[in-house]
Design a protein that fits this description.
The chain contains seven helices and eleven strands. The protein is of the alpha/beta class. InterPro entries: ChyE-like, Class_I_gatase-like, GATASE.
Length: 243
């Protein structure tokens, strides 16, 4: 089998390693099946899409909609590298799954708009598949309605031209979409379980995802949530595209 390429951008080792190992677990892969590149540490370099079964992009503390003056040199480099890769992926219709940060990466292509209109606090919420989502080879593995973990400052306010809406929620109309046949982005986190969210909340407690004084309530909500369906998405991605 050709390996999968996993792209991460989290500077904190605990968060980066936790996300990577969660993706491996949910996808049913081990480290020999996946090459991890931490973009916050160095340049992506050349990527020959033919060398990979598919590309998975994790979440990020970066936001495309951050004010330009607030972006570090690293963030600007990461955004430029991911945009260049995304344009190639879409042109080739090569298998790609971007979780959370993938929304910003893919959602800004082809006239799409990513802004702060539909940000959601950290926690579990009800996500519903569209008719196209129910029929989709990847998203269709999920129930018509399911709980998923979210937590984001930005979201898609206008879909890219030609994008197919696959899922939404009451507070964020675009929870998943597809470009072409094989390029996907989700706003929710398919790799997160309650334990993973508790760990991530603790690490990012000062990053503005939780209101001041609200950490303990957010942690209690994460522990009480029943989120079981989203990990099927990663296993299905592997089932569809491993070669």
């Amino acid at each position: 089998m050709l390996p999968f390429l996993f792209l991460g951008t989290r500077a904190e080792d605990e968060a980066a390693d936790g996300e990577y190992h969660a993706v491996l677990r949910c996808a049913g892969l081990d480290e020999r099946d996946v090459r991890r590149v931490r973009l916050e540490r160095g340049a992506l370099g050349e990527v020959d899409l033919a060398d990979w079964s598919g590309v998975v992009l994790g979440g990020s503390p970066f936001n495309l909609s951050d004010p330009p003056e607030a972006k570090s040199d690293v963030q600007r480099r990461v955004e430029a590298e991911l945009r260049a890769l995304a344009l190639r992926v879409v042109a080739a219709d090569s298998p790609f799954l971007g979780a959370c940060y993938g929304i910003g990466t893919l959602g800004s292509l082809r006239g799409g708009l990513v802004d702060r209109t539909y940000g959601e606090p950290v926690g579990a919420l009800d996500v519903a598949l569209t008719g196209a989502g129910l029929d989709d080879p990847l998203l269709g593995v999920l129930p018509a309605r399911f709980d998923a973990f979210v937590g984001h400052k930005e979201a898609v306010a206008r879909l890219p031209e030609g994008a197919v809406l696959l899922a939404g929620s009451a507070t964020c109309p675009v929870q998943a979409f597809r470009l072409g046949r094989h390029v996907y982005a989700t706003q929710f986190h398919p790799e997160l379980d309650a334990e993973g969210l508790v760990r991530r909340l603790t690490i990012y407690r000062d990053h503005g995802y939780v209101a001041p004084g609200g950490l303990e309530d957010a942690l209690a909500g994460a522990r009480a949530a029943d989120v079981t369906a989203p990990p099927r998405l990663l296993a299905r991605f592997v089932e569809l595209y491993a070669r």
